[in-house]
Amino acid sequence: MTDEVGAITGELELQTSATPDGGIEALVSYAGTQDLYTISGSPVRAVSEHPDQVEHRAAHERILEKLTTPGRVESGNEQPVELLDG
Asked: How far apart are CA 46 and CA 19, in angstroms?
C-alpha cells in the first residue's frame, strides 16, 4: 500500500534511506521505472537514533520481509500490506 496511489502489485523495487531524525524511509517503484511511491507507514524507526550501514540493511530486510508476506484474506480477497500492520 502506498500513500500516493494506494495498492500496487507486480515486479517492484524497494528503496530505503535514512532520515535526519533516525528513521528509515521506505519507497517503492515499479521495476525499471523512476517514479517512487511512499509505502504507507514510512518512515519506520531504526534501532538506534543514527543507524549505521549494518542496522540500515537489517531494517531494509525487515521491511522487505513485511512487504513480501501475503496480507490477510477477507471475503476471499488478500488485503494490502502496510508497514504499520502488526
From this structure: 10
User: pTM here?
Assistant: 0.80
Percentage above 90 pLDDT, the chain: 44
**Per-position DSSP letters for the chain, written without gaps between them:** -BTTTB---SSEEEEEEE-TTSEEEEEEEETT----EEBTT-SEE-SSSS--HHHHHHHHHHHHHHHHSPPPEETTEEPPP-TT--
Distance CA 16, CA 39 (A): 10
| Main-chain dihedrals φ then ψ at residue 37, nearest 5 degrees | -125, 140
All three cell numbers of 7, joined, read 495498492
